[in-house]
């Protein structure tokens, strides 16, 4: 295709050059003939000889005209009187005869340039008036340039022109070949139809997958948004080409997509949606980010965690209820009916009071249910699990499943550490600010030495023997990973009572409070 274009351009350029060249050569020949005629007419002796002599083959007019013709290379120089009779001619036999072309314009005092046919054939002519000493017109001078010589100049110019056109075509062909090779390398030798098909498949795939895809260029501008990304980020197609900061505004979502926050499976919030983002840089300085909607899994996660909590609680209650039934059966067999009634009332009241106290402090049902179950598990293991009076948690958690995982892992580790210690106890403190949540879990165990307070968050590190069904050392690592994904921190320290204290801070764990539905003060 490129070679055909180069050849077409060369042919077109050659034709466009040749078209005016013939006219230019004709014009040059006519102007040359006119100049020779003007030079001849400007000699006073010619006009004087024309007035004083007769037309003859050896006359002074013929002699002078032939001298000038031979010197200039003209085809003929005809000097005529006022009646159009020739006094000179290249063919002496024509002297004394009337000219074959109309001399009226020249005899009227006008210069004439033309291409015309005469006795010697087709020629480029120039005619001028011949004036005497007083300026009166006494005749005219007609000079002809052989037309074949003009055509010969044109023909002689064509080979050189074709040589230049051929050279230009050769350069164009070489450039076309080099460009073609480069394009083939860049497109991996794919045909245009293959590239078009790949592009169509890419567009169909990007817009059909249920995962948001955002592509950025090296300047941080959005260059691609598939349908799912537009839905998750509440953006329209007009956002393509806009800077990321301008399209999304300030916030954690923008920082994550721009790469200012690094990591994998980073949690971020856009509107009412909790998103999991991953970002991969590209070779051209841009990046591609993927987004998954975490909110769609929230209901299933709540149900799964509730089921797990229920199973743990039922397992703990199984032994506790068996002991209570045995005690109640003994009181009835001893006919101590009043004591049996009191025992039943105390047992039921204690459990009801614990549940009510937790739900008053923890308005998120998932976290409250978890701690109710953990209280029962702790009681079975001989550990007192308390929730601090300072605990307050509203029902505005962005990621309740993540907080349940953090609380569950820390409480389980605390129970393991507190078992067997004097006055075994575990205390949980949950405080909420406008957007942040702070969690503290203290235990009465042996504590964590200062040199190991960072090591314990390493995945695979544990002080316990690995169980047969799995591996240990992932609980605290998971706690820190979940905290960092939400932009928070997790650290270990020393409890005021001498055991360990784990503190987790989540700066953006809560949604903005809805003032129109704010709870009335109790």
UniProtKB/TrEMBL annotation:
Transmembrane annotation, as ranges: 161-179
Keyword Zinc-finger belongs to the record: no
Principal location: membrane
Catalytic activity: ATP + protein L-histidine = ADP + protein N-phospho-L-histidine
Annotated Gene Ontology cellular component terms: plasma membrane
Limits of the Histidine kinase domain: 378-510
Entries under InterPro entries matching the protein: HATPase_C_sf, HATPase_dom, His_kinase_dom, PAS, PAS-like_dom_sf, PAS_fold, sCache_3, Sensor-like_sf
Top-level EC class as recorded in UniProt: transferase
Topology within the bilayer: Multi-pass membrane protein
Pfam families found in the cross-reference section: HATPase_c, PAS, sCache_3_2, SPOB_a
CDD domains, per database record: HATPase_DpiB-CitA-like
GO biological process per UniProt: regulation of DNA-templated transcription
PANTHER family membership: SENSOR HISTIDINE KINASE TRCS, SENSOR HISTIDINE KINASE YKOH
This protein's UniProt keywords: ATP-binding, Cell membrane, Kinase, Membrane, Nucleotide-binding, Phosphoprotein, Transferase, Transmembrane, Transmembrane helix, Two-component regulatory system
Protein name (record): histidine kinase
GO molecular function, one term: ATP binding
Coiled coil: none
Compartments where located: Cell membrane
RNA-binding listed as a keyword: no
Region: Disordered, residue numbers: 41-65, 485-522
EC identifiers of the protein: 2.7.13.3
